[in-house]
Specification:
Radius of gyration: 16 Å
Bound molecules: S-adenosylmethionine
CATH class of the domain at 8-142: Alpha Beta
CATH superfamily of the domain at 8-142: Vaccinia Virus protein VP39
Structural class: alpha/beta
CATH architecture of the domain at 8-142: 3-Layer(aba) Sandwich
Helix content: 40-55%
Length: about 200
């Protein structure tokens, strides 16, 4: 498979928003995984300034519905999608993923999901999504190691405790063989690719 090259206009956003954008290593895995899944409609949770949604739409040709609670970031994302000519394929929804996900999964059939926001809520979001996706559908979850704090059982620093404890609960669910066939990747901040059983 030829290496996917993000649009240079998207790549430029890394200068200002790099901390918020998927790492190049995880992006490469995301794009390979999404292209292999050949989805028709992707749900992305966590748009930021629209980088990964743009890459997903450009690489797969799928429709992408993406959720972001920060209206300023979503405005930048819409500008990027327009500039790059992908705005007819991508819809940005402004609001809290916890409110929007239950509505969107009831309204559309998603055949690929990218989880990249509300890190302490991955488990809750997966519960909302699970019954509305088909067997074989992949959920790609980024940052599941959360700066190396998730592995093991050590009590994390207080300010990260909720995210780390909840991420451990999500990983317990993601690796439950009755629910998912899951591959864990020790790259960037950790990736889980969960295929619904
Ligand atoms: C890591 S960034 C997404 C990066 C993007 N997927 C990319 O790689 O280009 C996570 C984004 O999720 C948003 N976010 C966090 N919690 C959220 C929530 N509960 N609902 C909607 N958006 C949320 C943040 O504002 C942030 O912009």
């Amino acid at each position: 498979m030829p290496e996917f090259e993000p649009d240079p206009r998207a790549e430029k956003l890394r200068e200002d928003h790099g901390f918020d954008i998927i790492s190049r290593e995880a992006l490469s895995l995301l794009i390979d995984c999404a292209v292999a899944a050949a989805p028709e409609r992707i749900l992305e949770i966590g748009t930021s300034v629209g980088y990964s949604a743009l890459c997903l739409a450009a690489a797969t040709g799928a429709r992408v519905d993406t959720i972001e609670r920060d209206a300023d970031k979503l405005a930048k994302a819409r500008e990027l999608w327009r500039e790059c000519g992908e705005d007819d394929k991508i819809t940005g929804f402004c609001g809290d993923a916890l409110e929007l996900v239950p509505q969107l999964v009831r309204a559309h059939r998603y055949d690929f999901v990218f989880l990249d926001a509300a890190k302490s809520k991955y488990g809750v979001l997966v519960d909302e999504i699970y019954d509305f996706i088909d067997t074989g559908t992949k959920i790609f979850a980024d940052d599941v190691n959360y700066f190396g704090l998730v592995k093991g059982n050590a009590l994390p620093p207080h300010k990260h405790r909720t995210i780390v404890v909840n991420m451990r609960k999500f990983l317990a669910k993601a690796t439950d063989p009755k629910l998912f066939d899951t591959q864990l990747f020790d790259m960037a901040n950790g990736v889980a690719i969960c295929t619904k059983i």
